């Protein structure tokens, strides 16, 4: 009855939100390409690839860039353990699609995820014909889950993420969401205490496994800053000799805060360079205008091929899919979405790059990790914009303190070592009729 109501209301909601959705997609760019895939309408070329008889196919869904990185890491491990493994990787955003397409191997087919409307979902299943469905972090949609269950396709949620806000909302509407969560055959959680949280939402305890975080698995990530170093040279910036203040995945307002911090710190560190990688590159023009208003000379990473004799104050990373490697050139890293808005961004990649991390008070999406980093002196929290300046200056000043932070942070991440391998092992055992699935809830 609940899902019937959901499907009856879905077209109404789609019509109401479609204008805002299309506007958002237009701002992010490249929204028209493969747009029909969102309605499970595939080109002849894609249909031909999907129609190839190549044994079992796994469907992995990852919403955007961060989740796509996890999906690619996991898929690589699955292929390593099973040379016959191949998959369809779907994503929701154009930026996620671009990264997935750039990194995809020949045994992957990258597509957009279908809208969660029953006729669309059914067409997608009929075309993809998956042997298993893997959802990354939090992408559990009612029709997607129900149709998989109806077809006998086992479903796994990997690197399962449940923010306190989402948990409160799900508990409040447990009657509505429990039937969807009960469709999950396997939930791989990042922390042991997460087991009880998912059980409270309707997932049988036997189906929840503590494996650690793929995102935080230190043995699986590789950072190569060679390209970033060469690009900096084209802007007359020497990454080995000049201190670099780096803002990763920044959100509105944080760029101006970092620019102010940079201007104050430059009085003590004249060769200091500011690098900013905004979370959404479609904001580039707006960010440049705001930084110019503060008196900064700004260069764009996308213009690195253009000869220039001047050295900019700030380099803005206006490209996608390379942030991980850019962290390697930083001296100090500030993680965005933690000062002017809530949620926080992933601090693991700069830590793996051997860089000290600072974040603001709003790290809700990484609350457990952030708390552990602070408890073990593996990161520093700046309480507000005013506190950020002195913290940055102190770290720029003190190399030994930077090294202590990185060493302590690496110890925190060590608890997640092998998470990718453990998750992949559980997934390969997840097949229709497997005893690992247990009895489905009615």
Keywords:
442 residues, alpha/beta, Rossmann fold, 2 domains, 7-stranded parallel β-sheet, 18 helices, globular, disordered C terminus
Short description:
The chain contains 18 helices and 14 strands. It is of the alpha/beta class and 442 residues long.
Structure description:
It is a single chain. This protein is 44% helix and 14% strand. By secondary structure, the chain is of the alpha/beta class. The two termini are 14 Å apart. The longest helix has 27 residues, at 2-28.
For the secondary structure, the number of strands is: 14
Helical amount among residues, as a percent range?
40-55%
Total tally of structural domains: 2
Between the first and last Cα atoms, what is the distance in angstroms? 14 Å
State the fourth-level CATH superfamily of the largest domain: 3-Deoxy-D-manno-octulosonic-acid transferase, N-terminal domain
Mean pLDDT across every amino acid position: 91
Spatial strand order of the main sheet: 3-2-1-4-5-6-7
CATH architecture grouping of the largest domain: 3-Layer(aba) Sandwich
The main β sheet shows up as: 7 strands, parallel
Radius of gyration: 23 Å
User: Uncertain runs with pLDDT below 50, 5 residues or more?
Assistant: 436-442
- CATH fold category name of the largest domain: Rossmann fold
Per-chain topology:
Layout: H1 2-28, H2 44-51, E1 58-61, H3 65-81, E2 87-91, H4 94-103, E3 108-112, H5 118-128, E4 132-136, H6 142-150, E5 155-160, H7 164-172, H8 174-181, E6 186-189, H9 194-200, E7 208-210, H10 226-234, E8 244-250, H11 254-265, E9 273-278, H12 284-293, E10 298-300, E11 314-316, H13 323-326, E12 332-335, H14 348-352, E13 357-359, H15 367-375, E14 380-381, H16 385-397, H17 399-413, H18 419-428
Helix pairs in contact: 3-4, 3-18, 5-6, 6-8, 7-8, 11-16
